[in-house]
Target: LacI family transcriptional regulator
Amino acid sequence: MESVNIKKLAQLLNLSIATVSKALRDSYDISKETKEKVVALAKELNYQPNPHASSLRKHKSKTIAVIIPEIANNYFTLAINGIETVAQEKGYHVLIYITHEDYQKEVSLAKDLYNGRVDGLLISVSGATTDYTHLQQLQQMGLPIVFFDRVCEEFDTLKVTTDDYESSYLATQHLIEQGCKKVAHLAISGNLSIGNKRKRGYLQALADHQMPVSESLIVECTNDDEIDGELIREMFIREKPDGIFAAVERYAMASYEVCGLLNLQIPRDVKVISFSNLRIAAFLNPSLSTITQPAFDIGKEAASRLLNTLEKKNAPLTNENIIFKSSLIQRTSTAK
Model:
């Protein structure tokens, strides 16, 4: 007789895999009628649970995983500090994985979690991620997942972010108010929700101030400092901006370097503002104006919500967005 798995049960019952899984676990958020249907068919077909999948449900490792795209960015350093603060208070261990902006690495790391070694996952996806099947499979197996910073908007779970659109609007408006007529945007990957929101904020600020949009001043940067430096240098040669809004701190640092090579002075020749949690931003020459995110609080909130779910048996994560406000800190790099 052909073996029956949870996917087959779901197909026969015209239910989602997650619903069947919860019904078999007697989860409180599944109706009695649905549970009875699932259990009856499982008995009829002699369904035997997959031991690897069931380990995710039954085994409590008191460990959570955190998957991030990079560690050099100070945002993620602070977010991890917030996560670990909560985890230590609750008696959980934290395993940290870095994808280095590599989608296949992210998929491989997700597969490593199929064996039930962790109770939950906090993730900020790579800039190359467009397919979330690997994460949906984990969720269907019963692993709670919370997104932070870089999220999948269509994924049915909790997401903790900052006000990317509003902050980008304010950053661009700040450059305009400081006298900039040609504002460039050094953008992060368009695959990412934060990349799209930050670009939209930039474009809306230009529109609201009746400033034209120049495609040559919008540069989608990479994860390679040498390539980014060349892209920024080419932008200055094509159409010299007098203001730069960088989506992440790495691009601001590249801008400083390029300006030095081209003998351009900041802020006299070009003004620069960036999303950044750099502690040394105030001590750069010139000091860097920043959109500073509450990264520690974001990490802490994401971890708190995940651990609260783990400690309340079968309590689902709500499909909601928790948004923290960022702060615009004006320094010398945007001075008149």
